[in-house]
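Good morning C.,

I know you're traveling, so I'll keep this short. The sequence:
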Amino acid sequence: MKLIVLRGANLNTEMYRGYAPIADLAKVSAPDPFNQDVNPNGLQRDLSETHSRDAYRYAEGAEKVPDHNRAWAEVLLNVRDPSVVKLSPFTNWRFARNSSTRDWAVHRFLVLTATTVSTSEKANRSMSGPR
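The tokens, ready to paste straight into the viewer:
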């Protein structure tokens, strides 16, 4: 998966913001539920069937009632193993009309490439995100 990201900071942590379809994010991430015995460093609550059903109904409503705006909250992906992502310079600057815009953007926009992992490897995923 490749996406254009914007580099920034959140307190003392470097962050990269971007947009991707949920289906693409599912290919490169896996849940990381907290479990005191098995996964004490987990960041998420256990998967809730009720919560999943409610989320589906919410999204389904976007098609049924198109004039009622809907949007998902942001999803944060935590990269625990840097080897699963690669950052490279973004070089397509046709939209930057002047050099000052281009100079600002060159240091902030990057291309993030994330490795897709098979289902059998998802138990040891390196990217996870809160639900």
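Safe travels,
E.
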